[in-house]
Amino acid sequence: MLRWEGGPAGEGTMGGMREKRERPERPERPEQEHARYWQHPRLPGVDLLRARYVRHTFSRHAHDGFVIATVTGGVEGVGLPRGAEQVGSGGVVLINPETPHTAYAGVSEGWSYRVLYPSVEVVADVAMETAPLRGTPSFGETVLDDPVSGRLIAAVHRAAEQDNALAAGTLLRTVVARLLHRCGATAGSGAAGPPGAGARAAARARDLLVEDMVDPPTLEQLAASVGTGPFALLRAFRGAYGLPPHAWLTGARIRRARALLDGGATPAEAAAAVGFTDQPHLNRHFTRIVGVPPGAYRRERERARALGAARTSKTGPDAGP
């Protein structure tokens, strides 16, 4: 049975963290799945996912920010452009922005993990202060055997869950700096000349899909619009973005749906606005890319906004942690 978690953004009080003794996570029953995808109102630019999946699989997709995850139980399978990886408990997974990937259970018991989704700006800010990198930062490795970083990722989650924004922000910067020092690189650091005709055609096709997301052109129409053939466009688009146009469009629709849900739209409104035939169509694709249904995602966003507004009204906009 799949359970989508809710609850307050912090388990402590908004006025101050209640002291708790750390307890080990309760063992999970076989086949039990759960997930919570959320934000802390005072940890900007970072989403958090805590989940256990058994039958759930993520379709091939990409993020506009980073993925920094630690597996806390079982084995996660990760499908990457260069092949599949199996990541066991204590392993760390790093995925750069716009890198297509999948995720699935690597063993019959599934996997549990905690994930941080920092924006490009958050990681770049840490890199500017701490890492000897020039240009846009990225990670040069995807899977690490790094229990220390894994514990730090989990500690960010625990601090946020206990409404300790100061600790969460400190631990977040600590783990990002540690990972950048260990395997940081500069995105696109290899020598590259001007884009070729195929790359230009792929970029124009992508723009056309974004412009007409609700009623997109057919592959033949898209190819004709950019002055190439359908098979040539498929090759170029895959080469540029790692996905065929229809799969890339699904991911783009989910990103736009998330932005609409962030702004208060209902799932039904978001589905219609981005070109899904109905809300169940959105639900299916949203869950396979984000990890939770759009309704659960929206509730957590509303909860974070309400708690942030409550703190501001109680203590004023310039209140400290």
Molecular structure report:
This protein has 321 residues and is of the alpha+beta class. It contains ten helices and twelve strands. Strands 1, 2, 3, 4, 5, 6, 7, 8, 9 and 11 form a ten-stranded mixed beta sheet that branches. A two-stranded antiparallel sheet has the order 10-12. A hairpin with a 7-residue loop joins strand 2 and strand 3. The chain is globular, with a radius of gyration of 20 Å. It starts with a strand and ends in a 6-residue tail after the last helix. About 6% of the residues have low confidence.
Tags for this entry?
ten-stranded mixed β-sheet; two-stranded antiparallel sheet; globular; alpha+beta; 321 residues
Instruction: Give the overall average pLDDT.
Output: 89
Largest sheet: 10 strands, mixed
Please mark out the parts with pLDDT under 50 across 5 or more consecutive residues, or reply none: 7-24
Helical residues, percent: 40-55%
Any idea what the shape is?
A: globular
Q: How many strands appear in the DSSP assignment? A: 12
Structural class: alpha+beta
Give the CA-CA distance, first to last residue: 38 Å
Order of helices and strands: EEEEEEEEEHEEHHEHHHHHHH
Report the C-alpha radius of gyration, rounded.
20 Å
Tally of separate helices: 10
Percentage of residues in strands: 15-25%
